[in-house]
Write a structure and sequence with these properties.
- The protein is an alpha/beta fold.
- The protein has 2 domains: 4-221, P-loop containing nucleotide triphosphate hydrolases (Rossmann fold, 3-Layer(aba) Sandwich), CATH 3.40.50.300; 225-290, Alpha-Beta Plaits (2-Layer Sandwich), CATH 3.30.70.
- It is built from 11 helices and 14 strands.
- It has a 6-stranded mixed beta sheet with strand order 6-7-8-3-9-10, with helices on both faces. Strands 2-1-4-5 form a 4-stranded antiparallel beta sheet, covered by helices on one side.
- Helix 8 (215-222) packs across helix 11 (293-301).
- The longest helix has 16 residues, at 164-179.
- The structure holds adenosine-5'-triphosphate and magnesium ion (MG).
- Magnesium ion (MG) binds next to helix 1.
Length: 307
């Protein structure tokens, strides 16, 4: 197992009588992308800022590369890079000037020219921060977070507001950070991002982690079973016989659709194809549906988290 870089234990934050984060536990390892997935107000930013040492918890502790976020904040600062949800920058400074300025703050900084290349900002080097598009700004934010060659990255909603193309290109950058062995924790409210980009995901709601695991584990544990939907308009089907087919766990009809719940999509598909042939049922429209993170979120919270 790779080295644990972020260890949060029982982190708790209250505002008056309101508990924004309650008893947060998580561990993130080198070479891992960990996602905090939750709706507005779930407590993602509060959690991240407590881990970074920016916000003081009412209870609990966090260590980053072995340094305590509160009592050893200098050690923590040297090892982390962060992007804020609402990044403010000196708006009239130029992109290259900002990178140079940040570089001057570190003993062994990454080269600004390399970061411009890596983040596809070479053409914008002379542009002012305020003239950048949303996606360019997010990339600059991430480039600035990397100037100090951090082992650990905290990215608070790094892809919010980006178009799909810009989002996918940022995913590639984040995957590159993982490949370099850095630990990445990021918040998101995009289901697809949690599912495709993150190695492990914690689903947060009302200040608590409701479930944690790889996207696959979460779908397996909390998602509904997969289903096969077949249009059988005009063909009487014997529900009892179909219920006996391989791996089928339930059968129902919805309008003209026959819906088979299955523990093994491939096995049930094969079995149904054989059944259909033997009984002269033409295979018209047929679709398979597997559980997604959206289903998991729904199962855990009773609500949808719309992208
Ligand atoms: N300084 C503060 N004073 C009082 N309440 C706060 C403060 N900061 C955050 N909160 C409350 O704590 C809760 C969690 O906020 P937080 O910013 O951590 O949520 P989030 O998951 O990051 O949401 P979003 O997706 O909107 O960024 C919210 O209900 C918020 O109103
Ligand atoms: Mg937030």
């Amino acid at each position: 197992m790779a080295e644990a870089k972020i260890i949060a234990r029982n982190l708790t934050k209250r505002y008056g009588t309101y508990t924004a984060v309650e008893g947060l536990n998580l561990t993130v390892h080198a070479g891992e992308i960990f996602g905090l997935l939750g709706p507005n107000g779930a407590g993602k930013t509060t959690s991240i800022e407590m881990m970074e040492g920016i916000r003081r918890p009412d209870a609990g502790t966090c260590t980053i590369c072995g340094f305590d976020s509160i009592t050893q904040s200098a050690g923590v600062r040297e090892r982390i890079g962060l992007t804020l949800q609402a990044a403010s920058m000196p708006e009239t400074a130029r992109v290259s000037e900002l990178l140079e300025l940040y570089a001057s703050l570190y003993p062994n900084p990454a080269r600004p020219g390399d970061l411009l290349q890596q983040f596809n900002l070479v053409e914008k080097a002379r542009s002012t921060a305020k003239s950048l598009s949303g996606g360019q700004r997010q990339r600059l934010s991430l480039a600035l977070a990397l100037v100090g060659r951090p082992e650990v990255l905290f990215l608070d909603e790094p892809t919010t507001g980006l178009d799909p193309q810009a989002r996918h290109s940022l995913w590639d950058v984040i995957r590159g950070l993982k490949a370099e062995g850095r630990a990445v924790i990021m918040s998101t409210h995009y289901m697809e991002e949690a599912e495709k980009l993150c190695d492990r995901v914690a689903i947060m709601d009302h200040g608590k982690i409701l479930a944690e695991g790889t996207p696959r584990e979460l779908v397996r544990e909390f998602g509904p079973e997969a289903a096969i939907e077949i249009d059988v308009t005009g063909f009487p089907v014997n529900m009892a016989e179909i219920a006996q087919l391989s791996a089928v766990t339930g059968v129902q009809t919805e309008d003209h659709l026959l819906v088979l719940r299955t523990a093994n999509t491939a096995a049930s598909l094969m079995a149904f194809a054989g059944y259909a042939q033997a009984n002269h049922i033409p295979l018209g429209e047929l679709r398979t549906r597997s559980a997604t993170m959206e289903d998991v979120f729904m199962a855990l919270t009773g609500r949808r988290l719309r992208d």
